[in-house]
Amino acid sequence: MVRAAVLPAVNAPLQITEIELPEPGPGQVRIRLAAAGVCHSDLSLSNGTLRQPAPAVLGHEGAGTVTAVGPGVTTVAPGDQVVLNWAPSCGDCHFCGLAEPWLCAHSGLAANAPYARRADDATELYPGLGTAVFAEETVVSARAALPLPDGVPLTDAALLGCAVLTGWGAVHHSARVRAGESVAVFGVGGVGLATLQAARIAGAGPIVAVDVSPEKEELARSAGATEFVVAGEDTAKRVRKLTGGLGADVAVECVGRADTIRTAWSATRRGGRTTVVGIGGQDQQVSFSALELFYFGRTLSGCVYGNSDPARDLPLIAGHIRSGALDLSTLVTDRITLDDIPAAFDTMMAGKGGRALVVF
Predict the structure, then answer these.
(1) Does the predicted TM-score (pTM) go above 0.90?
(2) How far is 278 from 256, CA to CA, in rounded Å?
């Protein structure tokens, strides 16, 4: 038996209960989790903003140790430490052929197939985003288990599975920040904190953090922000003032709200780049006039999983962790247990804290 946080239905409270996992089948591995990050996307899955079959075990940002492998698995072996990849690429589709694995047409298929059962009534359960790491153990495709690079603590490595890869990629792949460029980061949650660190490592400056909560200033500055703005009606104007009166060379939106995306766009200089990382609902509509699109010459782009190739990027990020340039511990404001996940959801909805990390 394995303890897990089960979402019985969309918008229903999580239930901490026991589940039964099968032995790994062909191409699958079983993993004992060391830690799992509580991401805003998990909250979006629970409330229906993002689609997820239910009942389900949520959680997609995790790391752990392989305990068993199914037939045909050669990439990892029992005893290996791994990071979970919630969007594993198939390697064969059109987008994979274009070397864009973050857009893989088949990466989300695992979330639509039952993978376990409740222990009390044998109800079939779906894996949240194909990984289901809000549990002591999980079973995933071997493609979703990435070997953990040397020198990275296993518990903190859970953050590599989403927040860090997303924030790093937003800076280095989507926005392509260059040394000396100004960067504004909207939203100081787990992804925002990773984005701030990535901007600092890229040599950006000034780095402006924007959040609705003034309590997050110290957290933002510890991650690399040189300036902090409490979000309000004049946010874009204040960011422009802090970036030479022109606006930021790069703005990264980590919230997923229409008004925040619009503000990030307005805070970007003429010819600058606005990257949207936050995942919003279909009701979040953003409007631009045809004239301003022409006049400002800005680039607005979406960013899926940081436009990252985890197999390529994890070793590079690990190098920065070993050197001390990237500090995973600064992203974590709460270390919690499985039973504390519902409270962590409440904290996120209140806009407080950075990343909550479930430690098993």
Answers:
(1) yes
(2) 4
